[in-house]
Design a protein that fits this description.
By secondary structure, the chain is of the alpha/beta class. It is built from eleven helices and six strands. Strand 2, helix 4 and strand 3 form a beta-alpha-beta unit.
Length: 313
Amino acid sequence: MKLKGGDNSAGKKRPFDALRIAWHDYPGEWFEESPANEEEAGRRVNTFRSLLRSDVALFLVDGQKLLDYRGEEERYLKSLLTNFRQGLLRLKEELLAEEDRLVEFPRIWVLALSKADLFPDWDIHSFRDLVIGKAAEHIEALRATLQALVETPEALSVGEDFMLLSSAKFELSSATPDPVQIDVTQRVGLDLILPVASLLPLERRVQWNERMEIPRKVLETLADGAETLAVALTAGKSIGVDRLLAKLPAVGPLASKAALPALIAAAKMGGSQLKQVNAQARENHDYLSATLTQFKLDLDQGVTDRRLVRSRK
């Protein structure tokens, strides 16, 4: 996403000119079928090595399959989570290669309901409560498997964040298996993917650093470009930083050099202050800060609209 015009025209240099989100995907049947040959086996390992350098993982629960198993949702959820966990265990030796534990790794695993339009009466709490109620032990088993792969395993969120996703509203008919009408304007959650990918790791990095000692080499991989994002998010100003830092201890995790004031301020900013910074950035044609503060507002709105649950741990 490349921004045009705005603050550069006034001669002010922006912290960065483009925000790039890398999306990694893989065929779902990889965890249901054995590789056909050595070439495919190698491709799977390479794909997952690439995926495991991400900041956020969206673990998709297929809405159609969940509907197919209505009343017995635990059967599908158990199969989904167990197959994925066992697939990781089979790849563990290749994924770790010569490392004891992975330092760069997706630290946030969001459970997302795809095809959420199939459940018009559900909000995010309906989905979260069903998944936890039907598959809590399997989520915990996946968390334990992931923790065994990663350095500083306590800096890991699995099954604590939830999203609803739908690319369109599909109107179905009992007379045909194909949709009668597809309305692509009625989307759910897609507008949250960029904010989740770019800002959720920044928030989580500060949250974790407040309550635990995190090795610097791990801290620096928790959110790529976090400090640069934070400067842009706060419009390069120390908005509320002095007041915020006055409340923080002079010793401990937050006293480290990695916890920059702008990073802390950006993660903590919310409510009326966030709206004020967003409005000021728009007025100043500072489109970079306006976009990032809007992302943060979008995350808050997603929670309010019951499309998103963010972990507070």
